[in-house]
Amino acid sequence: GPMGCRTGFYFLLRDNVSRLDALHLVQESFAFIRDFEGEIPGSRREECGNYKEHDLKGAKETAVDMLEVLKDWTPEKMEYEV
After folding, report:
1. Higher confidence at residue 6 or residue 40?
2. Where in the sequence is the domain holding 43, given as residue range(s)?
3. 41 lies in a domain?
4. Residue 53, in any domain of the structure
5. 82 pLDDT exceeds 90?
6. Burial profile 40-77: b = 16 or more Cβ within 10 angstroms, e = fewer
């Protein structure tokens, strides 16, 4: 992608996606990571310059933590005061 794997987590949407749908997509993504088994996509030397740093166990732990944070979220919690 245009941002690279070491620049953070990006969640980009286009068109009309509600905040509730976006929240569900993020929750589903973390649940997918939590439940993932097998080889991490892009984790081979020929696919990634940082292939030795892929960490499925760490990713799963982070996903579990984030699911706990997001379990009671609502679209209203996604609004920030200016």
Report:
1. 40
2. 19-72
3. yes
4. yes
5. no
6. eeeeeeeeeeeeeebeeeeebeebeebbeeeeeeeeee
